[in-house]
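Need tokens for this chain, all 173 residues.
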Amino acid sequence: MGSSHPAILVVGLGNPILGDDGAGWRVAEWIHQRLEAPEAGEAAIPAEAIEVDCLSLGGLSLMERLVGYRRVIIVDAVNSGSRPIGSLVVARLEELPAYTSSHTASAHDTSLLNALQVGRLMGADLPDEIMVVGIESPFVYDFTEKLSAPVTAAIPQAGEEAWMIMRRWVQES
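Here are the structure tokens for all 173 residues:
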């Protein structure tokens, strides 16, 4: 990995004009603000250790964005249909089902897990660890910039989950 960017990338994934699908972006914004102004008494995470980005890409395009990072946190809305709206899922990417992302640019795209496998076979420098912080919601296709009340309430919780993962990774390095 070159020195052009940090070892950790946080990706808020989704589309901010499709209702709860914008949750990932809101959490990424929450994290960015906390990086700039840590809570009172909290040791700051060095800015050079973390990069925060908001993307609407999935599959192959998302895999390409992850090249060069050692660890990645992806924050996104998830629709398993098995949990209450606003509940959190925190897991390693490989522990989750390999759905084709709803954020793909093409019907010919693939899941992130498949894209990572292809990238590794091609020699891409991809992350050793990818964590997902998901917020449950079926409301990811409504044309609105507003989040549902349960998802809005979950933004700080999802941010805290991502923050704890980031802090652990920074301490380990």
